[in-house]
Predict the structure.
Amino acid sequence: MSKVPRVPEGERIYAIGDVHGRADLLLDLIERIKSDMKQGTAARHTIVFLGDYVDRGSDNREVLETLSGRPFGDTEMICLIGNHEAVMLQFLQDAEIGRDWVRFGGDTTLASYGARLRRESPSIGELLKAQETLAANLPAHHLDFLHGLKLSFRAGDYLFVHAGIRPGVPLEEQDGNDLIWIRNRFLDSDVDHGCIVVHGHTPNLEVQSRHNRIGIDTGAYFSGRLTAAVLENDIRRFIAT
């Protein structure tokens, strides 16, 4: 961008990367953010979760229970959908997607709701049984939370999405699948998107702070580091477990 990117005047935004079943880190970061919110003079706070709350880590049910309970009270909290939530919802409608889901972490989400599904060549009967168990044990408020997830959020010069955007495509014409799945074409792009894209999806041990994007998935489920970007006026900083 030709100008210094800013968030709306008087607002401080906390954008939180991929949780992936690490309820312990989520609770830790929530407390760190609550403490940080007491500092400074921001008139308004907004919390943005960038998706991928489930899979890989072991405490997926606890993560959804925490988020669906609105841990920041009356503070505005926007939760975006990640590819892992999209596949979880798809599994509830189409059991056969479970063959793919368990290979990239869905087995831990199923286990947290009392379902079991082996990673290698599950039968259709096993898939249907796991689907039935998940549907029976998934609390209604967890399902409501998942159905209420958004694809994107815009504030000032920042766009918040799970994975990224397709370079060269106007923001209003972006495909939802790209917003939750895209990788290399977005990550390798050096073009000016007309905004700074804040995203998760692709883990790195360090925050990726670029001129056109900020990647804040620091691999919580394997690194123990869950990160939030803090954006206020023209300043960007980071809080991590």
